Structures are given as structure tokens and as C-alpha cells.
Amino acid sequence: MLKKTSRVRRFYEKTHDQRLKIIKDFSSISSEDFSLLKNLNSLDFDLANRMIENVVSTMPLPLGVAANFLINGKNYFIPMAIEESSVVAAASYAAKLARSSGGFTSVASKPIMICQIYLKNVKDIEASVVAIEGEHEKLLELANSCDPVLISFGGGAQKIVCRKIKKKFLMIHLLVDVQDAMGANIVNLMGEKITQRLEELTGGQARARIVSNLSVHRMVKSRAVWKKEVVGKKVIEAILELYELAELDPFRCATHNKGIMNGIDAVAIATGNDFRALEAGVHAYAAMEGGYRPLTKYYKNEEGDLVGELELPLAVGTVGGMIQCHPITKICLKILGVKTASELTSVMGAVGLAQNFAALRAIVSEGITKGHMRLHSKNIAITAGVHKDLIDKIAQIMIEEENISVGRAKEILEVMCK
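Below the sequence we write its predicted C-alpha cells.
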């Protein structure tokens, strides 16, 4: 029996049927799943209308798969839903370059989420903290009474932390192990459950009982090595210079971190996770130390190879919400083959690192415009009404001219079509 691998030569050149067959053979998707993917129109009105209010239509995104990923010794095809040209290709290329040194290592911490309970008009902060600590276990039991099923799987409320905010404000952090869920709903419910007792213990009034998207107890650390023989010594030096610039300049750093989230958001959307919550948490974490900083770091090892590392908070789930009702989301999780939310977190961390490396490499080598516009040429060609046979010619013109507008594309096409 042949060993399954995500390393596929020229995946982008294969037909739709050929791509789907590769994914079907690699993963556990069924014939019905195969048909849904082939259909390209899998979300009907009734299902969409249950997901959000006032539905008038759906707005599909292209769903691609990043190939070549080897993470913690396991092969992955990674579904990515995104409209931006070059993102899937860039992730796949970065993963291919990393395979020669073993791919990515990625470790996720426990899935601990924070519910914040904000109490105002607390007359004696110190005495209130003592009172809360005295009933710590009873408060946890009260919170855990909300979800016996979560408790049976080893999750539930774990700890209560008190934080003084100014003179009369007390912030309570309820820390909850949410297992394989993203966790917002259950932590909010637990926070509401213990609020009345907290008010009784402190004499304060609750003004907030809500999850924090700055999930600092739910981290992922990813790492990869790109060999100098594969990447090139000059490219490594240039990447290190660009990374240093991101450390020094918030204008560069914002784009640096956006490159990371290009990959993470695309996987989040494909798997039914809340990419807006991830964005909020990641960028807040980047600014926690008083200045906005890059979420990856790069350095050379003793052999002169480039080492890339990523560390950031990621609160994602494999159960609950949209994940269990959207048919394509369920198929994407089958393609990934992840068993837990922690494994999904590890995968997303590796994708974020790969995407960031690919962007840096492109900027310091051929330039970001050349590769991006090669792929973006298809969009412009469609806008200009170009026959598909002319796309490659348009792409070559774009490469030569570095950049091109829709108007300029039309002018070129008029000449070419005469």
C-alpha cells in the first residue's frame, strides 16, 4: 500500500476531477461529499436562512487546498477559502521548501478560554478578592453545572483570577477548558451563571459577562527550517533584514502580520471558525508589550539555514456552531483529517508561518507584484472579457510591466485581438 502524501507535483495544472480524486483518495470524504465539492453550489436557502438572519443569497469564496504540508511528521492537504490571488500557491510553495528539513513542528497549548466579568462600584477591592478566593471551588462548581457533558469529556471551569481595574473596578477572569469547541457560548453561559454570587460577595454590580478574544491561555507555537541550499544565502540575509524592519517599524509590521493572517484566516473560513475573533486576538497580542510587534521571528542556525518561528493565540474549534451545519465545512475537516481542536490549531499555526515566509521571500527576491500579478491576471482577464486562451499571454505582459490596470489590459487586448 502506497504511503499517502500531500506532496503532489503540479497540482495546480490538474483538472477539477483530477484534483478531487486526489483529495478523495487522500482523505475520508464520501461519494456524497465528492458530489457536493464538484457541484460548487452546496449551500441552499433553507440552510443559509438558519445560519443568519435576513438571507437574500449566498456569496461563495473560492475553496482551494494547499499541498505539500508536513506538520509534526503528518501529511496534510489544507483547505483554504479566500479570494486573494497567490495565497494558496504561496503556502504550498513554502511548505514544499520546508519538507527537505522535516517540514513544520507545531504545538498547541490546552484550549483554555477566558470569560470576563466586570464588576463596578466595589467598595473594598481587597476584601472582595479574599471573599471570592474563599468560595473559589463553589464558584467553579456553580459554573460547571451549566454543561455536564463538557465536564464528562474532561473540560469545564478551571480557575478564577481577580484583576483590579482602577480604584473601584474589579475584573474577574473565569478560565474554562472548552475541549474541541471554540468556546465563546459556553464561557459566556458560565460567566452569567456565577455573576449573581459574585455581586453578593463583592457588593458590586456586574456590567459585562463576555468572552475575551485575547485568548492568551490558548497559544500555538510553530517552527520550520528552510535550508540555505534551497532558499539561497542572499535571500536569507534579505529576509532577516526585512524581519528586523518589521520589529522597528509598525507600518511594515502591520503588513508583516497581515501576511500571517492571510493563511490562518483562509483555513478558519474553510473550517467554519470565526476569523474576526482570531484577528482581534492576534493583533491585540502583538501589542501587549506596549508596542506593535511581529508575531514571527527569523534567525540563522549554526548551519546558516533560516529558522522561522511563530507564536500567537488561536481559539478555534472542530465542533459547534457553523462547523456542524455547513456541508462544505464538514468536508474540509474530513480533508484535513484533524481529530481535535488542538490539532487544527497546530495546522493553522504552521500555515501562518508558511504564508509569512512565502511573502517575505517574494518581497526580497522577484518582488511581490510579479508573482501576485501572474495569478491576478486571471481576474483582470475576466474583467476585460478575455478568452481563456489569452490568459497566459496577458500574464506575461503583466510580468514584464510589473503592474497593469483593467483599462490598460483592455487596450492590450484590443491590439492582440486585431
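Residues 148 and 156 are 9 Å apart (CA to CA).
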